[in-house]
TrEMBL record, chain B:
It comes from the Bacteria. The lineage of its organism: Bacteria, Bacillati, Actinomycetota, Actinomycetes, Micrococcales. Its cofactor is thiamine diphosphate. This is Thiamine pyrophosphate-dependent dehydrogenase E1 component subunit alpha. Gene3D superfamilies: 3.40.50.970. Keywords: Oxidoreductase, Thiamine pyrophosphate. GO terms for biological process: pyruvate decarboxylation to acetyl-CoA. GO terms for molecular function: magnesium ion binding; pyruvate dehydrogenase (acetyl-transferring) activity.
Length: 333, 331
């Protein structure tokens, strides 16, 4: 089969790198910008080799100035470019928070829908790499809470490759979350759209089918949930894992179809549970699936504290045990 | 000890003061060199950014400060902490993530703070510090304490909006604030010759209506003199100053940095420009301090840092329950 040749084994990081390369080849208006993204190829090497191949006008090194960088991307987008901004680490996005919330998110509505703002802000997020405060945060809910932004999170190399291209093709601003502790995980990626059409950007995926409890996860915790499902299967429990992929808009259809089937749901993310994505999911699921629920929707997540020192991240991050405890609690209800 | 307290240099530094300054710089160097070695063993958690090579800046400035004064620091903050008097053993334990650390092991290298010492904190956010000193300086001004506040920040941070806002605020309010731009040539891999849109960071001072000076950051005496002038002016109500200190950092941006972006400029700096070597050469030439004096300090500091590592390694970790403290409420 000819399609076989288009399958490559890639890390999530390489999937992003190849996806960015493909997007740049396909559309000369795609430009990348950020601190150390050019010559260095980014601190996580996601943009490695791209400045060499596409030049300094398309892979733009910037001074250290997140607010200015994001504002510049807005201007570029208004002039027909498709800028992709790299924020070095999750916690460094806050200097740009004003530009994102007050400018990026507002222009489409302010112009009564006339202005398109095709830009992507890439955010390596979450913990698990031995880093500390400001370098391990999960701030997706701030942006999902903000009208006017699309927010997605990838969990594996194939999605990394395709979703970055879809995000870049979107005419609306997309906050693009990358689970940095999964950057080096590998999987087979079908690079040929004709061989296997990628799922649309804002659709959730049932990554593992099951019948007893639905686990709702995204980004780094998808793998945690798949491991939990594996462990639970050994005890005769059948868990379904839904990778949300899109946090705003949410693919409620896929979510509610799953929960109506299992009657139980547990949300799993690294961000603090208090006012995190799980809170919204719980509210929506209880409304949409009220008569199907066998137990309250339970939430597993980080504690409501600053990200702890790295020696304690294993205690902070929702791991197998905390997910399985919640599953048991749900089943016992 | 041959030198006496009555011997003075042209800047008016007594032998005791010179010894203190040398001890401070040596402590920072020893601390950082040791961390460089220890980090390689994998025992130190988190990210570590070393200040080696830049000692004359923190020392030249902080030797003028007292308990009325505050400083704000950066991700490369160990030198500033030591210079402002934060306990070396507490710092080492903090960097090892131990309960005996300055912040009970909950901060780590990038978040050491000691308010009792007027040390507002190392800072994981580039450009996070400068605005803070506007507040402490304003408080000092209102209360008439004569205190000054100093923000240390890098060439990279000099391009961050917060830094520029802070300089303007300080000037508008005529604050006793000193902005020390530590230009070590790079922000991670980005060269300051490219990223700073002026020949020198100090050039920006005039745009904010304050004096700007450039000093050789390898020369303790140059930093000390420039800082002394600026701090005296600030204490007397003369407002803020921007001091640009130029030098080279001896290690990578962080421990583990491959440093592909710079040719080796470090070997020459260590050989010909090093602040400790120059200090030693000068004070022994003038006879203000003897080589024995300085050797004794080296030995004393070697011992202190050795003890700090041994004690840090042996100290207990914080507990899991400690994580949930010091926040307002737990959900
Ligand atoms: C707001 C923010 N953006 C980016 C970073 C990542 N970062 C950490 S240090 C650094 C370079 C800082 O350079 P400089 O200010 O010159 O200080 P130096 O490291 O040279 O001491 C960068 C980009 C950060 N910590 N905070
Ligand atoms: Mg620098």
């Amino acid at each position: 089969m000819s399609a076989m040749t288009s399958v490559q084994r890639l890390t999530l990081a390489k999937g992003l790198n190849q996806g960015l390369r493909k997007a740049m080849e396909d559309d000369p208006k795609v430009v990348l910008m950020g601190e150390d993204v050019g010559k260095l190829g980014g601190v996580f090497r996601i943009t490695e080799g791209l400045q060499k191949d596409f030049g300094e006008d398309r892979v733009i090194d910037t001074p250290l100035a997140e607010s200015g960088i994001v504002g510049t991307a807005v201007g570029l987008a208004l002039r027909g470019y498709r800028p992709v901004v790299e924020i070095q680490f999750d916690g460094f996005i806050y200097p740009a928070f004003d530009q994102i919330v007050s400018q990026v998110a507002k222009l489409h509505a302010r112009s009564l829908g006339h202005l398109k703002l095709p830009m992507v802000i890439r955010v390596p997020f979450g913990g698990g790499i031995g880093a500390v405060e400001h370098h391990s945060e999960s701030n997706e809910a701030y942006f999902a809470h903000t009208a006017g932004l699309r927010v997605v999170a990838v969990s594996d190399p194939a999605d990394a490759y395709w979703m970055i291209q879809q995000a870049i093709r979107s005419d609306d601003p997309v906050m693009f979350y990358e689970p940095k502790r999964r950057y080096h995980e590998r999987a087979e990626v079908e690079l040929d759209e004709a061989a296997e059409a990628p799922l649309p950007l804002h659709r959730a995926r049932v990554t593992r089918e099951g019948t007893d409890v639905t686990l709702l996860a995204y980004g780094p915790t998808v793998k945690t949930c798949l491991q939990a499902a594996e462990a639970a299967a050994a005890e005769g429990k059948s868990l379904e894992v839904v990778d949300l992929r899109s946090l705003s808009p949410l693919d409620l259809d896929t979510i509610t179809t799953s929960v109506k089937k299992t009657g139980r749901a547990v949300t799993v993310h690294e961000a603090a549970t208090f006012l995190g994505m799980g809170a919204e999911l719980a509210a929506l699921v209880q409304r949409e699936c009220f008569h199907h629920l066998e137990a309250p929707v339970l939430r597993v997540g980080g504690y409501n504290i600053p990200y702890p020192p790295s020696r304690f991240e294993e205690e902070f991050l929702p791991g197998l045990d905390r997910v399985l405890d919640a599953v048991d609690e749900s089943l016992a209800y | 000890m041959t030198a006496t307290a009555t011997v003075r240099t042209q800047e008016g530094l007594s032998a005791d003061k010179l010894r203190d300054a040398y001890r401070m710089m040596r402590t920072i160097r020893e601390f950082e060199e040791r961390l460089h070695t220890e980090f390689a063993t994998g025992e130190i958690p988190g990210f570590v950014h070393l200040y080696a090579g830049e000692e004359a800046s923190a020392t030249g400035v902080c030797t003028h400060l007292d308990e009325r004064d505050t400083i704000a620091s950066t991700h490369r903050g160990h030198g500033h902490c030591i210079a402002k008097g934060v306990d070396v053993k507490g710092m080492m334990a903090e960097i090892y993530g131990k309960a005996t650390g300055t912040c009970h092991g909950k901060g780590g290298s990038m978040h050491i703070a000691d308010l009792a010492k007027g040390m507002l904190g190392a800072n994981g956010i580039v450009g996070g510090g400068p605005p803070l000193i506007c507040g402490t300086a304003l408080a000092a001004k209102i209360q008439g304490t004569g205190g000054v506040s100093v923000a240390f920040f890098g060439d990279g941070a000099s391009n961050q909006g917060t830094t520029l806002e802070a300089m303007n605020l300080a000037s508008v309010w005529n604050l006793p604030a000193i902005f020390v731009a530590e230009n070590n040539g790079y922000a991670e891999s980005t060269a300051s010759t490219w990223s700073v849109a002026a020949d020198d960071i100090a050039d920006r001072a005039s745009g904010f209506g304050m004096p700007g000076v450039i000093v050789d950051g390898f020369d303790f005496f140059a930093v000390h003199e420039a800082a002394g002038e600026a701090i005296a002016r600030a204490r007397a109500g003369g407002g803020p100053t921007l001091i640009e200190v130029k030098f080279t950092r001896y290690f990578g941006h962080f421990e583990g940095d491959q440093q592909t972006y710079r040719a080796d400029e470090v070997a020459r700096a260590r050989e010909e420009l090093d602040c400790l070597k120059r200090f030693r050469a000068r004070v022994t030439e003038t006879g203000e301090l003897s080589a024995d004096d300085l050797d004794a300090i080296d030995a004393e500091i070697g011992q202190l840092v050795e003890e700090s590592v041994v004690e840090a390694k042996a100290a207990p970790l914080p507990t899991e329950a400690d994580l949930l403290t010091d926040v307002y409420i737990n959900y």
